[in-house]
Amino acid sequence: MNEKATTIVAFCCIYCAYAAADLAGSMRLQYPSNVRIIRTPCTGRLEVEYFLRAFENGADGVLVAGCEEGSCHFKEGNLIAKRRVAYARKFLAESGLEPDRLKMVNVSAAMARQLTEHIKEMAETVSKLGPSPLNKAKGTAPQEAKL
Amino acid sequence: MIVAERKSINELVDMLPNDSKILVLGCGTCVTVCLAGGEREVSIIASALRIASRARGLGYTVSELTIERQCDNIFIEQAAEAIEKADVVLSLGCGAGVQAIAERFLKKPVYAGLNTKFLGILEERGMWTEKCAQCGSCVLHQYGGICPVTRCAKHLLNGPCGGSREDRCEVRPDRPCAWQLIYQRLKGIGQLDRLEKIEPPKQWSASLSGGPRVIIREDHRI
């Protein structure tokens, strides 16, 4: 399936994953174009409802990219995010969405290559799962997805 | 505080009628503190219901509101307009809140979104434990402030049972033996002699066994 038919929202921590995405650009590393990066002050700032709202608003997959465990700028924000992602995945499963559409990864600001690999993996997962049933049901074309 | 736990989305879907306007109504008191039915949980449950509705074609229209207290008419009044607009109310209040809403809006179906569990405290982050069984005739003064009715799995007033291991309860090994705690506490406050007294059988008519309870304060009645 064409990856462009789906949309992935990537919440990236400004201290690590966002910088890594920036570095990936400088290094001319390629990653799927259907990823929409949202800069966050820390993944610990992300609430469970942010993930759910992303799906409600047209995302087919959500990637949360925080600092490596033990390296959070705010000590434990990424660990909080890890628990919230696990909790949100339960809600996705109960609601009828595949929990694998939501995933958390950990990278440092220097790990541009690893970040692009994570994004590619996520894109492959979402591509295999196909568009979110929410988008199918609504008949929303991905480019019209309200993000 | 009253401690409650959310029902699963599948349970809610089974309960709620298809193609209806649903108001998810939170409560800002006990269930907010125990992270089951406050503003945040309302937001999460409402979002999950919208996702379920679209994924499974259930036809829900979901709105959200949280009031200060669902068990009090003064605060319920603030939700009146939103409740009138909805077809059904999914209350994230405790059992008392659900019933207070149902009594106030006679023609509106009100569903419980939570399972109300017990009267307890936040023991540590993310962990709530039961402390009071609301038996109606408190005996805490006799047991150093540790309730054997609630915290002893066998509700023994003349304990211990003898089955505890390494200060753990025989019935729930993940919980401490209440009688071990009572002994340590009474020893600490110099009241071990209280344990020499044989406690007669408890008068259970003051509990729920005597039927639904009512308290009337004549000095406050109009």
Gist?
The complex is a heterodimer of chains A (about 150) and B (about 220). Chain A has helices at about 15-25, 50-55, 75-95, 110-130, 135-140, and strands at about 10-15, 35-40, 60-65, 100-105.
Please give a structural write-up.
The complex is a heterodimer of chains A (147) and B (222). Chain A has helices at residues 17-26, 48-56, 77-95, 112-129, 133-138; strands at residues 8-13, 35-40, 61-66, 102-106. By secondary structure, chain A is α/β, with parallel strands linked by helices. Chain A has a four-stranded parallel β-sheet with strand order 2-1-3-4, with helices on both faces. In chain A, β3, α3 and β4 (102-106) form a beta-alpha-beta unit. The longest helix of chain A has 19 residues, at 77-95. Mean pLDDT of chain A is 91; it is low at 138-147. By secondary structure, chain B is α/β, with parallel strands linked by helices. Chain B is built from eight helices and seven strands. Chain B is elongated.
What structural class do helix, strand and pairing data of chain A support? alpha/beta
User: Main interface pair?
Assistant: A-B, 17 and 16 residues
Average pLDDT confidence of chain A is 91
**Physical arrangement of strands within the biggest beta sheet of chain B:** 3-2-4-5
Low-confidence stretches of chain B: none
The ordered string of helix (H) and strand (E) elements of chain B is EHEHHEHHEHEEEHH
Strand content of chain B: 15-25%
Runs of chain A with pLDDT <50, length 5+? Answer: 138-147
| Assembly classification | heterodimer
Helix content of chain A: 40-55%
Mean pLDDT of chain B: 96
Strand order of the largest sheet of chain A: 2-1-3-4
Instruction: Indicate the overall shape of chain B.
Output: elongated
**Tally of strands of chain A:** 4
Number of strands of chain B: 7
Cα distance, first to last residue of chain A? 22 Å
Q: Main sheet of chain A?
A: 4 strands, parallel
Number of helices of chain B: 8
Q: Can you write the helix and strand succession of chain A as a string?
A: EHEHEHEHH
